[in-house]
Design brief:
With 496 residues, the protein is mainly α. The protein has a domain at 422-496. It contains 26 helices and no strands. The protein has helices spanning 6-15, 22-25, 67-77, 81-93, 101-113, 117-125, 134-149, 153-165, 173-185, 189-201, 209-221, 225-237, 245-257, 261-273, 281-293, 297-309, 318-330, 334-346, 354-366, 370-382, 390-402, 406-418, 426-438, 442-454, 462-474, 478-495. Helix 3 (67-77) packs across helix 4 (81-93). It is elongated, with a radius of gyration of 29 Å.
Length: 496
């Protein structure tokens, strides 16, 4: 699933009452995905206005309301102040409803007019009054704190948000967690899920997978999709609970059925690999399509692979494959960036363009993709898509090889063998060929066989040569197959 910085993701998700860090560091791929849209908590301590609201809010024909948001709306329109406040916060955060600051302002203003301190703080926090001054932020925090001390769960969360962001108060992660726990202890599912993530990553508390799983389960049992996904991840990885693929799939399924994209992606992975349920490529593609259409980059990449190979009941379609790779790459998915680069390099699914190819491989390389680094290195060495530069090429290949990329190790061996931009050095060449060969790279195995056959910086050893040629030939390497055909004559000549 990727690279949003941890701080940015947490800041955005904490305001809505949940942090979905597993979406970046989940078990299937690196990295990232979407924060969830958690519950604002059940109405507690409700008080009603002196009369019901006499007119509807600006959204007179609401669409895309979740059941919870719809319930708050009905209650708010009947004059329920607590429900109006909660609905206002949902709109301010785009939680379970389309984000709408006018809607947020309408409902928070109504609740504030009836004495709700948290709603008054929300107006200042979201700058709905147009005041962006530090004094207004301080006032928002103070209002939240007063309401929180009176037991308002939404206000307790918002105090936690303020401490987390340093809004109106000095940043203090420990204090942030303290207030989140107060809200969680009142049964707020979104805040229980946040507590799970705090323990999962050791944020403001000592890392504790058992505590994390416990909080996730509390929230998951209330129907929180983020928590259900996180609990599925915990069962898959065996973190804080006994590893159980069937339970993992069970919780992913619950979250996926609520439209949680990361869980839909994970469910697709489960069907593809037969994790916790029978392998089914068609079902895998079905779930990837759902997640991809919701913007999940990992699913978009997998869907691109399915179209490229004609898997899961899909007709092979290079143009469709490229389209999905492009969507994922536009979100920073390094695997997809490499696929887009490869598509431009080969002209498959898109018009061939070496400059574009280099650009996309470079994006992946800059994120540490060993495949991207390998391609960038080779393109610099050959001057394809970029001016030839041996130093740059060698440096990128070295980066890739240092991370264990076998193709890069083999390429460095060839560079030293041929003296491409470096001093020719058979000893260095053998060392790199050996590294690549030990990882099963057929080209490295063939080159190592040739080095042993010809005694390049090592004694001639035809038995070793034959062994490496056989390994390479078994993988379809035609040069190695040809070498095995000529080797008897070489052995006979040496015997004489």
């Amino acid at each position: 699933m990727k690279n949003i910085t941890l701080t940015i993701l947490l800041t955005a998700a904490l305001i809505s009452g949940s942090i979905s860090l597993f979406n970046i560091y989940g078990p299937h791929s690196s990295p990232a995905n979407e924060p969830s849209v958690p519950s604002a908590g059940s109405p507690q301590g409700q008080t009603n206005g002196s009369s019901a609201i006499s007119q509807l809010s600006p959204d007179t024909n609401p669409i895309a309301d979740s059941p919870e948001a719809a319930d708050f709306r009905v209650k708010a329109q009947s004059g329920d102040i607590d429900a109006a406040k909660r609905l206002g916060f949902l709109y301010a955060n785009g939680e379970k409803v389309p984000k709408s600051l006018p809607e947020a302002d309408y409902w928070l203003q109504f609740a504030a007019a009836h004495g709700d301190l948290c709603a008054e703080g929300g107006i200042k926090f979201y700058e709905l009054n147009g005041d962006k001054s530090p004094a207004s932020a301080i006032s928002a925090f103070q209002l939240f704190l007063r309401a929180a001390n009176q037991g308002d769960a939404v206000a307790q969360r918002m105090v936690g948000v303020c401490f987390w962001n340093g809004t109106g108060v000095r940043k203090d992660v420990t204090q942030s967690v303290f207030w989140y726990q107060k809200a969680a202890d009142q049964g707020s599912a979104g805040d229980q899920c946040s507590m799970g993530h705090f323990y999962q990553y050791g944020l403001g508390v000592v890392k504790d997978d058992v505590q994390a799983a416990s909080w996730f389960k509390k929230a998951a049992l209330q129907g929180d999709a983020d928590a259900q996904n996180a609990l599925g991840d915990a069962y898959y990885a065996g973190e804080g609970v006994t590893k159980d693929d069937v339970e993992a799939v069970n919780w992913w399924q619950k979250a996926a059925n609520q439209g949680y994209a990361r869980a839909q992606f994970s469910l697709g992975e489960a069907y593809e690999n037969g994790i916790g349920l029978p392998k089914d490529d068609v079902e895998a593609v079905t779930w990837w399509e759902k997640a991809a259409n919701l913007g999940n980059a990992d699913a978009q990449y997998d869907l691109g692979v399915a179209y490229a190979n004609g898997n899961g009941g899909l007709a092979k379609d290079d143009a469709q494959a490229f389209g999905w790779f492009q969507k994922a790459a536009d979100q920073g998915n390094p695997e997809a960036e490499c696929q887009v680069g490869a598509s431009y390099e080969s002209g498959v699914g898109v018009i061939k363009d070496d400059s574009q190819s280099f650009g996309w491989f470079k994006k992946a390389a800059d994120q540490g993709s060993t495949t991207g680094e390998w391609f960038v290195g080779n393109m610099y060495m050959s001057g394809v898509g970029v001016p030839k530069d041996y130093n740059q090429g060698f440096n990128w290949l070295q980066k890739s090889a240092d991370q264990g990329n076998a193709a890069a190790e083999t390429r460095l061996g060839i560079i030293y063998l041929q003296g491409e931009g470096v001093t020719k050095d058979d000893g260095q060449a053998i060392g790199w060929f050996q590294k690549g060969a030990d990882q099963g790279d057929a080209d490295a195995q063939d080159e190592l066989g040739w080095m042993y056959e010809n005694g390049k910086s090592i004694p001639v050893d035809l038995k070793q040569a034959k062994g490496w040629y056989q390994k390479a030939a078994a993988q379809g390497n035609t040069d190695a197959q040809a070498a095995l055909n000529r080797l008897p004559a070489t052995i006979s000549a040496h015997a004489q």
